[in-house]
Specification:
By secondary structure, the chain is an alpha+beta fold. The protein has eleven helices and 14 strands. The chain folds into three domains: about 100 residues, Rossmann fold (3-Layer(aba) Sandwich); about 150 residues, D-amino Acid Aminotransferase, Chain A, domain 1 (2-Layer Sandwich); about 70 residues, Dna Ligase, domain 1 (2-Layer Sandwich), CATH 3.30.1490.20.
Length: about 350
């Protein structure tokens, strides 16, 4: 049971492609925690990486020029019981902020340093999945230093097509919310994707396209440390795939919970989500995206260690289907963090 009247800092924003989604998520978190009687501190990190602390402010509020992270962490030490991480993307979800908070002795929600870093890098996460027998799509990793010219990109594209077929899913490995993901369907489009995405990362992950029903499997930690698998959510995007707009624009997709799949597929998707969580070493909660192929087999896409908490986000919808209110979901996340021994 979560202690009443905690002092909770809600960290959000940051120089990430998912800055706006983080602010949106954290706005609801702040409001809900305040309504529950907690003393909250909004900790907004602007796009320049400056931290802004406001006791009664809303999410996304900058105060003057802000302070650097060292000063901000010093201000938090001894003044809060817990840091609720509302970050998304490669700032705050990749383990770096977790490391700083841990060194400062500050408790925080979600997964620890190693699990956050592993899950954020899709190339590494794939190796972890494979190591425990979880199903993944065929893929190739491309060093972007070799894609500097259209000619080089064309050679790489032809090799990818020979190995993986078309279409190909091209990803910036540390992106999130489908930012930095493209699905070119012919050679010219693949060349263009390689050239367009290569400046954003030292490596691109190119995966075989897997068609089927898009699903997501969320887990919550129970008081005894076991995992509760939430109902599976089926995602029906209005566009070609579940891209950024489909995830966050009203009407961009239809989310159906529980998913319209067999009991067997539901159970397997839930097992996959729990196994991915354990294999990566996640804590508190996570959400693992999967594809159910027409033949009934499942393929893992990625695991999110800080799933979105906006009204349009999948985790709150899965929790609601399990009978958990938004406030109850947040308190489950908080309780897990308070039990953590890291």
């Amino acid at each position: 049971m979560t202690q009443p009247h905690l002092r909770i800092a809600v960290l959000h924003g940051g120089p990430s492609s998912e800055h706006d989604i983080s602010v949106w998520s954290s706005r609801g978190v702040l409001q809900t925690l305040r309504e529950a009687g907690h003393e909250t501190l909004a900790v907004f990190v602007d796009r320049a990486g400056r931290w802004h602390l406001t006791a009664m402010g809303d999410a996304g509020i900058a105060v003057g020029e802000g302070v650097d992270f060292l000063q901000a962490v010093a201000d938090l030490r001894g003044n809060v019981d817990l840091c609720f991480l509302g970050f998304h993307g490669n700032y705050g979800e990749d383990g770096k902020v977790q490391a700083v908070l841990e060194l400062a002795g500050l408790r925080y929600t979600g997964s620890g340093v190693m699990a956050s870093a592993l899950a954020m890098d899709k190339t590494v996460a794939r190796r972890v999945y494979a190591g425990v027998g979880l199903p993944i799509a065929g893929a190739r990793e491309l060093q972007t230093a070799g894609l500097a010219t259209p000619g080089a990109a064309q050679v790489a594209a032809r090799r990818l097509i020979a190995d993986l077929g078309l279409p190909v899913v091209v990803k910036v490995p540390t992106g999130g919310s489908s930012v930095g993901v493209e699905i070119p369907r012919d050679e010219d489009a693949l060349v263009a994707s390689l050239l367009r995405l290569s400046p954003d990362a030292p490596m691109l992950l190119c995966e075989q396209f897997v068609g089927g029903v898009e699903l997501t499997a969320a887990v919550l930690e129970r008081e005894d440390g076991s995992l509760e698998s939430l109902p599976i959510v089926e995602i029906v995007p209005k566009s070609a795939f579940f891209d950024f707009e489909s995830k966050y624009q009203t009407g961009g997709s239809e989310e159906i919970v529980p998913a319209r799949i067999s009991a067997e597929a539901t159970a397997q998707a839930q097992r996959n989500g729990a196994l991915a969580h354990r294999a990566l070493g996640c804590a508190g909660y996570s959400r693992t995206d999967q594809i159910l192929r027409p033949d009934g087999s499942l393929v893992l896409l990625e695991t999110n260690t800080l799933p979105g908490l906006t009204p349009a986000s999948l985790l709150p919808k899965a929790a609601a289907a399990a009978g958990l209110t938004y406030a109850a979901l947040l308190h489950r996340v908080i309780a897990a963090a308070l039990r953590s021994e890291r």
